[in-house]
Amino acid sequence: AYPGDERKAIVRGAGIVSRGNSNLVVYGFKIEHTPEHAIRIQGPNAKNIAVVNNHTYDTWKSGISIRGVSGNADPGNYDNIRDVLVYGNLVELGTNGGGGEIISVGSGAVNVDVAYNEVRVGDPNFEGGDEGISFKEGVRDSRIYGNVIHDLSDKGIHIDGGSSVHDPLITNIELVGHVVVDLPSQVMWVTTEGRGDVDGVYVHHNIVHNVAGDGFLVYRHPDGAAAGGTVKNVWFDHNTVWRGGQRGGGFGGFRVNHPTATGIAFTNNIAWANGGYDMRGEPGTNFAHNLCQEGWLCEETDRPLFRSPPANFELRPESPAVGAGYGGSDLGAE
Q1: Distances from the Cα of 42 to the Cαs of 21, 49, 219, 329, in angstroms?
Q2: Around 143, how many Cα atoms within 13 Å sit in the side-chain half-sphere?
C-alpha cells in the first residue's frame, strides 16, 4: 500500500499466494471475503518474508498461513521456510467455514515471529471458526509474542506437534507478553495430535482473564496418545490467570492433563478467582513459588491484591506476590 493508504487497498474475493519465493513483503492490504486463505506464504526454499500491517476479514480458511510445504507434500527435514515476520496485522473472522487456524504456521517453519497482531472474530453473530494462532508440525526456534486475542469461538494459542504421516519435532518455542480475554475454550495449550513431539516451550509473562476453559493446559490428545507423540519440557513462568475456567469444575487456571508428559513446571505464577481450580498437575509436575487459593500447591495463598482487575493487573505494594518469586521477583505477569 502507498504510505498513508494502508489497509485501503482492498483485495476482495481472492487471496495473495506465494510459493517458493524469498525476500518478499506483503504490506498494508485489506483482504476480505476469500474462498481460501487471505495470505498464504509457502515454501519450500523460501526465506526472508514479512507480512506486516494487513487486515484480513471473512476468510474461508486462515487469515494468514505460513507453511513449509503444502499439506500433501513430504516436508523432508522440516526446514522449508525460514526467517518470517508476521507483525501488526488485524486478522478478523478467519476460518469462516473452512479448516485451519486463523494464523497458522507449520510444516517445517524455522525462525518465525508472530508478534503484535490482533486476532478476533469481529461479528457478534458468528458461531464457527477455529483457533487463534497455531504452531504445528515441525516449527522450531520461533516465537509468539505481544498479540491481543479476544472474542473467538475456539482456543487462543495452540502448540501442536502432531502429524499423521511424519515425525516432526516442535522445539525452542517462546510465548510471551499476551493479553487474552473472553474466550469460550482453552487459552494456551500444548499437545500433539499425532506422531510428532513437542520438546521445549517457554510460556511466560502472559495475562489471561474471563475465559471459559483452562488458562494454560498441557493435554494428552487421544490421536497423539494412539500415534506415540509426546510432550516434554514445558515451562510456565510469571503468568497471571484471573477468572479462568468459567465453565465450571472441569476447568481452571493451570492444568496438566497428560500422564506421560515430562519436565512440566509452573513457577512464579498467579492463579486467582478461577472456576474449578487454580492449578492441577500430574505426578512429577514441578510447582514452585506460585500464588493461588489452593494451599497444598502454592506457597502464597493470600489475595494477590491487583490494583483494579481486569483493567489493571499491577500489584499493590502490600501484595503478598511482591518479591515472592525466584530471586526476589514479583509473581505473575509484569
Answers
A1: 8, 10, 29, 42
A2: 13
H or E stretch at 66: strand 64-67
Question: 49: which 3 cell numbers?
Answer: 518474508
Distances (CA, A) of 285 to 102, 218, 219, 256, 263: 31, 11, 13, 8, 7
Q: What is the DSSP secondary structure assignment for residue 215, as one 8-state letter?
A: S
Q: How far is the CA of 112 from the CAs of 43, 68, 135, 143, 288, in angstroms?
A: 13, 11, 10, 6, 31
Mean pLDDT of the chain, nearest integer: 92
Q: How high is the pLDDT of residue 74?
A: 85
Cα–Cα distance for residue pair 184/273, rounded to 1 Å: 17
**β-bridge partners, 105:** 66, 135
126 band by pLDDT with thresholds 50, 70 and 90:
low
Res 150 pLDDT > 90: no
DSSP character for 300? Answer: B
Q: What's the average model confidence in pLDDT over 44-55?
A: 97
pLDDT digits (tens, 9 = 90+) for 197-219: 999 999 999 999 989 889 999 99
**Cα separations in angstroms, 159 against 102, 124, 221, 276:** 14, 27, 12, 24
Helix, strand and coil content of the chain, in percent to the nearest 5, comes to: 5, 45, 50
With contact defined as beta carbons under 8 Å apart, do 38 and 14 qualify?
Answer: no
Q: What residue ranges in 184-296 does DSSP mark as E strands?
A: 188-191, 197-204, 207-211, 216-219, 231-237, 240-242, 252-257, 262-267, 270-272, 277-280, 286-288
Number of neighbours of residue 226 by Cβ within 10 angstroms: 10
Whether residue 70 is predicted with pLDDT greater than 90 in this model: the reply is no
CA 323/CA 288 separation, integer angstroms:
14
Residues 288 and 282: their CA atoms lie apart, in Å, by: 15
Q: Is 224 helix (H, G, I), strand (E, B) or coil?
A: helix
